[in-house]
Amino acid sequence: MDRINRIVVDTTHAITDLCVLATEFPTDKSAFHVQPGHTPHRHPYTAVYDMLFATRRYEPLVLGELGVLDNMSMHVWRGYFPNATLYGFDAFPDKIEAARRAALPRTHYALADVSDRRSLFDAFNDTGRTFDILIDDSTHLFDHQVLFIGVALEFVRSGGMVIVEDVFRGWDETRFCAALQPVYPYFSSGTFIETNHAEAYSEGNVEPYYNNDKLLVLVRNETPVARAHPTAAQNRQRLDAALARPDFKARGRR
């Protein structure tokens, strides 16, 4: 990958199975998101996700999402990917415990803090799995999104996707391009997808909670990342070695 492309998709006239599931289990990934008593955010992602995932819907995929919140999106993924193994990650123990009580089949949960590279690495590593899809729907903060991508690439198989949700329309995309330059060699393609829909709604007056209906989709290439599933002590030694690499030291990130 030598650039991040950009496309604009209007899904006003699309209603997919994923759109329907996202109304049965209300999540702001859908432009049809409705909750009594207030106007929730409605990001028009579900039809775009159906376009990205439909050909692999019935495969035994491994999907992980960072940001469990009320567990609705995990219900949606469980319904859409009947043969997948799902992992939900969140920084708040109460969210994890509540999600576990739903007892969704082949769905696992663990603590992970997107602001802490070690926390993310340990959480993904402890699954013992290589993911087909890893999604960040957590804080929506730029530095955390970049950190997520840098860790996620270590755990996504060739042809798999690293996806960041809720990128702000007003952010200068070259900022992402510059920050992600060190990881370009690990991806075969990268695309900003600006999603539009007549029923979309993500207004507000304080970042990071408004006008953020854009996805960043990165596809992993065949460049190998040497990684086993070591003990916790070995894991931290491996991570410290990775953080000492010139590309990370040059950026001054944890």
Automatic annotation (TrEMBL):
Highest taxon of source: Bacteria
Listed Gene3D superfamilies: Vaccinia Virus protein VP39 (3.40.50.150)
Protein known as: Uncharacterized protein
InterPro entries named in the record: SAM-dependent_MTases_sf
Organism: Acidisphaera rubrifaciens HS-AP3
